Amino acid sequence: MPFEKIVLNDGRVIPQIGFGSWKIPKEVCTGEVEQAIDVGFDHLDTAQTYRNEEEVGQAIKESGLARKELWITTKWSGTDDKGPAQSCSESLEKIGIEYIDLYLIHSPRLCKGDIPGTWKQMEQLYKEGKVKSIGVSNFKLDDLKELLASCSIKPVVNQILLHPYVIKTTTPLLEYMAKHHIVAEGYSTLIPLTGAPGGPVDKPINKIAERLKVAPEQVLLAWSKAKHAIIVTTSSKKDRLERYLAVGDIDLTEEDVEAIDHAGAKGAKWYERQTEGKSRRAAKFAAAGVLGVYLLYRLVSAI
Length: 303
Ligand SMILES: NC(=O)c1ccc[n+]([C@@H]2O[C@H](COP(=O)([O-])OP(=O)(O)OC[C@H]3O[C@@H](n4cnc5c(N)ncnc54)[C@H](OP(=O)(O)O)[C@@H]3O)[C@@H](O)[C@H]2O)c1
Description:
Shape: globular
InterPro entries: AKR (IPR020471), AKR3C2/3 (IPR044494), Aldo/ket_reductase_CS (IPR018170), NAD(P)_OxRdtase_dom_sf (IPR036812), NADP_OxRdtase_dom (IPR023210)
Protein name: NADP-dependent oxidoreductase domain-containing protein
Bound molecules: NADP nicotinamide-adenine-dinucleotide phosphate
Largest sheet: 8 strands, parallel, barrel
Binding site for substrate: 106
Helix content: 40-55%
Number of strands: 10
Mean pLDDT: 95
CATH superfamily: NADP-dependent oxidoreductase domain
Active site: 50
Domain NADP-dependent oxidoreductase: 17-263
Structural class: alpha/beta
Low-confidence stretches: none
CATH topology: TIM Barrel
């Protein structure tokens, strides 16, 4: 059975798996998005800050598909200090479309302490018909509570980090969202494979993959599906994209999901140490770079 369509709280129907363009270099972006569309993806996820909306738009144009055959999400990322209205107009132009299916506030940080006022601007874009649905991304429980206390139109989704090592801390947010009919869009679900291999989640993932004769990445995406999330993923490889779409046919048992959740909770602290270690190393590397440039500057000035 292929992926189901998910009905949002505004009545619109969104495909349950989307192809994202984060980190795809401009030079290869059009080709990779075209490949995803050819394989069967009908839901594309981009953002102002990914700086490849034009290339995504080019792929859409070259696909020859009618506009209504594709679901297109982009995000207001506050790039160059531009507000939602200006950013939305620019995204429409860059992608080359008349309307955006789903427009998201990329992070609550962009609201600069005024979530209600910022959301009003999103509601205005919705009323003008430039965007068909509106939502948020990276909103924590308190951010969503603040938004729901003042909004006239509810966000349809909250696009969030969703993988087994964060499931324990994210469950209260997921429960609150389910209660208010806000669908989770889960990104970076493959982190146990890509960013933090070697942790406790590997064992149940590999065991389930072996039993079902599928790839580990398919088990992780099937886990996200079991959480009723919309999957936002990506790949530069055709065979992997085909495997992602085949996840529509992979159903985990309750025991499978419990085993993955349990391993994720067990490894949560280990995962935090991994990511903290990585950001510390990145900060040290950046500091060393700045120091190097400064010393070079002093050396050149002294000559
Ligand atoms: N709202 C936000 O703040 C936010 C943040 C992050 C992401 N997103 C959205 O979510 C999308 C997906 O994010 P993501 O890239 O973090 O997602 P992901 O689905 O966790 O990872 C996708 C990556 O995993 C690699 N991969 C897949 N299977 C693998 C395996 N078995 N071993 C090693 N690598 C493997 C793929 O590489 P190959 O190309 O080699 O297949 C691809 O680059 C983004 O493009 C963006 O649209 C949104």
